[in-house]
Amino acid sequence: MDFLNALVLLGNFVLIPAVSYGSQLALGALGITLVYGILRFSHFAHGDVMAFGTMAVILFTWWLQSLGVSIDPLPTALLALPVGIVVTALLLLGVDRSVYRFYRKVRAAPIVVVMASLGVMFVVNGLTRLVIGPDDQNFADGARFLFTVRDFRDATGLAEGLGLRWSQLITISVTLVVVGALFWFLNRTRTGKSMRAFSDNEDLALLSGINPERVVMVTWLIVAVLVTVAGTLYGLDKSFKPFTYFQLLLPMFAAAILGGLGNPLGAVAGAYVIALSEVGVTYAFRKFFEYLLPESLEPQGLMQLLSTDYKFAVSFVLLVLVLLFRPTGLFKGQSV
Amino acid sequence: MSAKNTSYFLIMAVLLVLVGWLQSPSVAMGLVNMCLISAIMALGVNIQWGYAGLFSVGTMGFVALGGVATVLTSMPPVHDAWAAGGLRAIFGILIGVAAIALGVLVYRRMQKGWTRALVLLVVVVGGFFLFRAVLDPAVDAIEGTNTAVAGYLGGAGLPIFASWIVGGLLAAGAAWVIGKVSLGLRSDYLAIATLGIAETIIAVLKNEDWLSRGVRNVNGLPRAPIPYEVSLQSNPDFIAWASWFGLAPAEASSLFVKACFALTFIVVLGVIMWLSERAWRSPWGRMMRAIRDNETAARAMGKDVTKRHLQVFILGSAVCGIAGAMLTTLDGLFTPGSYQPLRFTFLIWVMVIVGGSGNNWGAVLGGFLIWFLWVEVEPIGLWLMGWITAPLPEDSFLRSHLLDSAAHMRLLTMGLILLLVLRFAPRGLIPEK
């Protein structure tokens, strides 16, 4: 019984939150890795584009809510998602047309393009703040819990409970669908294959008649889907605040590098590793060990490795470890 | 310096004088002080980017390390806290450092294989738990002593100017660690690693209350020999002197203090500028440019590219640390919550790019100009918004929303400036010679 209680405790406070956070990171890291693979630069505006896309979803959600549209128990934001994706895609294509394309044409050094993405970051961040402001916004509606901790306890008779929020279930299932569709697209369709070819060897791809501008456009469209979905899921699960989205840049990059930059499968794996370590390292394991250990060995302290304020430090430490021991990432990424 | 470049600085001076005339002399002097500090930060980033082509986005972290240096160097020590757990805390940190050193030793000396991985794991994990076991009680004891006003170890009680050097050294130390890890890999890796260290440094400063009171801030940093406004206002000689100029004592004291700061900052800027220019013209500077422009060729000539990159990265970070210590001295208080990456990292980058990367004078000009715009875009944006929204009815939602959000215009403006300069004048206002 104690063993089951310990497992349920771990599931409720570590596994489920980590898996849903990891899914959100995975979608973000996939975007970073795709831009890196195809356009060959580190997309620093990623977090802010994510905030921008989520903002578009939020505005449309509010409009739907004011009309009284609802798909209870699911959040209305899911209905608004396609609109947000279109708006983000327009933004990204516009930015590509006005900023990045020039650097592609003159074959500028990657670092110059990174710098340009800093400029884009500023502009997009400014736009988001101009429209919706820098504060927390709440747009989640619909039912909150699929089943609560109390439901679970009553049903199983255990001392510990396991709650599952709708936002977590939605996050995990939407991520499964999106990632599945992306891998199907990259591996099975003609366009997807041409994207992978372009990422592997640009010159060879050009020689075989692949249109680079088309590949780039498709990449931005996919990135728009990924960031908007990731941002909306994160906002539903936690809350929307532009600065928090900017801060997600570090764990997302860490996930992409951990898995090997340019490797989509690696980005997904890296994201779950990052999320699990972040939640695991900052969780207080005291109760968990109280269930498992005999009374004489029970821990005195909280059994918390680091306080929750250090969650960004966790992705940083993992990043440093990867750079030290395996700079190409866990899965083989592009050249170092 | 050519006539064109001199005219840029003259225009800058005219702009600052205009602010003094239109807003107030005190505002203008405050602006000058911040411009000087920004110029030093821009010099630091220029050493990294302009000299060597290193892309680091951790400036905020190094500036914050400079800030905490002022607390650690010049606040009076809190003896009760030291008695409660000072030595134990230091011992704990030494254990942490020793564990890392031992880990590095194991990694270097032992044969590759499972044994090494296991020993390494034991050393690092065991070291971490030992470190926490020693440090945690000390932290509790220190934070428990006189929590309302202290709750930290305090500093060494040295003059504030010493902290500027300490700030530079702290930043250099952090840069050494991060450079060791990420230099020699792809150029973007340094960017991401420095982004991480900056966030981590801020997290430490916000949470380690025993070190610098965390988000409860440290007030009343000493600034001797620069006097306080209040003491000037009660000094009859000063009041007489102020009235001779026809100024009210309050305004005169504020101006006087700001002028004192400005003079000190100008001296520091001058020294750093002189050293940077010397370095730029020296064989070392030529080697740096050679590495920047063609790494492969430089390596073929026998230059140790990674070592030189590490060197220049440390130097640039140290300059940012010095500027950070100066900034906290000017504020008179240390507030870890105030470090924002957009303001302390990316804005400095805009300064360097706009001013002209690879030219120290350009970096200084960029520091002045961009800081000036950063501050003045807000009133200008407000005025512009007022003008745009004037036709709208007084109570319209759009009008009030636009007026409210004028404050966010600065980010948009900075981004546009960066993009336009990068695209149409990538060499900046004062290009590299």
Quick structural summary:
The complex is a heterodimer of chains A (336) and B (433). Chain A is mainly α. Chain A has helices at 2-39, 46-67, 77-105, 110-132, 149-156, 166-188, 190-200, 202-207, 212-237, 242-247, 249-259, 264-281, 286-292, 311-325, and strands at 145-147, 164-165.
Radius of gyration of chain B: 24 Å
Q: How many strands in all of chain B?
A: 0
How would you state the average pLDDT of chain A, rounded? 89
Assembly type of the shown chains?
Answer: heterodimer
Number of separate helices of chain B = 18
% residues in beta strands of chain A? under 5%
Treating each run of at least 4 consecutive H or I residues as one helix, how many helices of chain A?
A: 14
Q: State the CATH class of chain A.
A: Mainly Alpha
Largest sheet of chain B: none
Uncertain segments of chain A of ≥5 residues (pLDDT<50)? none
The N- and C-terminal alpha carbons of chain B lie at a distance of 11 Å
Give the CA-based shape of chain B. Answer: globular
The number of E-state strands of chain A comes to: 2
> How much helix, percentage-wise, in residues of chain A?
over 70%
Radius of gyration from the alpha-carbon trace of chain A, in angstroms: 21 Å
The helix-and-strand class of chain A reads mainly alpha
- CATH topology group of chain A: ABC transporter involved in vitamin B12 uptake, BtuC
- Strand/helix succession of chain A: HHHHEHEHHHHHHHHH
- Strand-residue proportion of chain B: under 5%
| Widest beta sheet: strand line-up of chain A | 1-2
Silhouette of chain A: globular
GO molecular function, one term (chain A): L-isoleucine transmembrane transporter activity
Pfam family, one (chain A): BPD_transp_2
Subcellular location (chain A): Cell membrane
Transmembrane segments (chain A): 6-39, 51-71, 77-96, 108-132, 166-186, 215-236, 305-325
